[in-house]
Design brief:
By secondary structure, the protein is an alpha/beta fold. It has helices at residues 36-43, 46-56, 99-116, 134-144, and strands at residues 5-8, 20-27, 68-74, 77-85, 119-122, 152-156. A 6-stranded mixed β-sheet has the order 1-6-5-2-4-3, with helices on both faces.
Length: 158
C-alpha cells in the first residue's frame, strides 16, 4: 500500500492520467469566497455554482456537516465539496474545523472515488481557514482513502 504522495503545485490542476477527484473542505453556512475555493473558481465555475445551489436548497437536501457533493467539472475531473467546517473563523471563537465531519466526509468520498476508479487530489484540507492541524487530518486521509487503495496526492502550493 502506497502512502500519501506529497508534491509542490496546484491542487486545482492535477497532472495525472485518468479520473481525478479534487477534494476540499467547505463551511456549513454557504460561504464561498476565501482560501482554496478562490483558486478553484478561477479554473472552473461548476463547483461554486453547485455548492451555492446546494446551500440555497438545504431544506430539501443533505447539506450540512459531513456531507459530500460531487460535481463534475470536466470529462475526467470531479470536485468533492465536503462540509467539514462549522461556520467561519472569527476572533475569539475557536477554530471552525470539525475533524469528525471531515472523517465521515472522507469515508463518503472513498465510495465515490472507488465507484469512479479515481485518484484523489487535495490541498491540506481543513488546515487553512478552517484552522485545523495536518497531524490530525493526515491519519483520517490515510484511514479512509489510502487504506482502501485510493491514490491520494496532497499539494503544497508554491
Amino acid at each position: 500500500m502506497a502512502g500519501i504522495r506529497y508534491v509542490r503545485g496546484d491542487a486545482t490542476v492535477p497532472s495525472v492520467k485518468g479520473v481525478k477527484v479534487i477534494a476540499h473542505v467547505c463551511n456549513d453556512i454557504g460561504g464561498w469566497g476565501k482560501g482554496f475555493v478562490l483558486a478553484l473558481s478561477r479554473r472552473r465555475p461548476e463547483p461554486e455554482a453547485a455548492y451555492r445551489a446546494w446551500h440555497r436548497d438545504r431544506a430539501a437536501n443533505d447539506f450540512g456537516l459531513d456531507a459530500v457533493q460531487l460535481v463534475q467539472a470536466e470529462r475526467y475531473v470531479w470536485v468533492a465539496n465536503m462540509i467539514g467546517q462549522r461556520g467561519v473563523r472569527t476572533s475569539g471563537r475557536g477554530v471552525p474545523v470539525r475533524y469528525e465531519a471531515i472523517d465521515t466526509a472522507l469515508d463518503r468520498l472513498a465510495g465515490h472515488a472507488l465507484e469512479l476508479g479515481a485518484s484523489v487530489h487535495m490541498p491540506r484540507i481543513g488546515c487553512g481557514l478552517a484552522g485545523g492541524r495536518w497531524s490530525r487530518v493526515e491519519p483520517l486521509v490515510e484511514d479512509r482513502l489510502v487504506r482502501r487503495g485510493i491514490p491520494v496526492t496532497v499539494y503544497d502550493h508554491d
